[in-house]
Design a protein that fits this description.
Radius of gyration: 40 Å
Largest sheet: none
Distance between the termini: 130 Å
Number of strands: 0
Length: about 210
């Protein structure tokens, strides 16, 4: 039989990087201590004693809620109907996707430990449904990322075009100014040459 820890490892990519085993981070349902092997014959449940620190390796209690803040309360597995009602409660809890999966996994393992195979199956069906949703969300995220990259590339391309237009306009303006200066210098040169000829002609006449 798989351990609770094995199940968490199995869904590592699905559940994100939330800490388990008594840490103060991550959604509440992720904080149930994943140290108990569910095979009671080999590793019997060791309940957490009063005053024992959260996350201690001295206990392996599947039912210990290390971080009750944010926990989805009222989840049951006594009957199939209880399990179905609990799944609906998880679904409508408003919690994040990963939090919902963690809650369902915890309840599935509790039901299995108590021999509630049918009830555990209700949670397992929900978990599988959420796994498919996870893949869809990942695909949507990839599409959104691709669109964002395309948008950034297009924006960069348009910016490059605008910069090229500004540079071209500036170069044309400089070329125009240069031509006007050259023309002005040419006119000044002709004017000086004309004045020089006029002076030479006047000097010849006077002599």
């Amino acid at each position: 039989m798989k351990t609770f820890l094995t199940y968490l490892d199995e869904y590592a990519n699905t559940l994100g990087t939330y800490a388990t085993g008594g840490a103060s981070t991550g959604p509440g349902m992720g904080q149930y201590v994943p140290t108990a092997d569910l095979n009671a014959k080999k590793n019997p449940r060791i309940p957490r004693k009063k005053g024992q620190p959260a996350g201690s390796d001295k206990h392996s209690d599947l039912y210990t809620d290390e971080n009750p803040k944010g926990t989805i309360h009222g989840l049951k597995f006594a009957t199939v109907q209880d399990a179905k009602a609990s799944v609906k409660k998880i679904e409508g809890s408003g919690k994040k996707h990963a939090h919902k999966i963690q809650a369902a996994i915890a309840m599935e393992q509790r039901a299995k430990e108590m021999g509630k195979t049918a009830e555990a199956g209700v949670y397992r069906a929900y978990i599988e449904k959420m796994k498919k949703k996870t893949k869809e969300m990942q695909k949507e995220s990839e599409v959104d990322d691709a669109r964002e990259r395309k948008k950034r590339a297009l924006s960069s391309f348009n910016q490059q075009i605008q910069n090229a237009k500004r540079i071209d306009s500036r170069n044309k303006e400089r070329e125009k100014d240069k031509k006007e200066r050259d023309k002005e210098r040419e006119q000044q040169t002709k004017e000086r040459e004309k004045q020089s000829k006029d002076r030479s002609s006047n000097a010849t006449t006077q002599s």
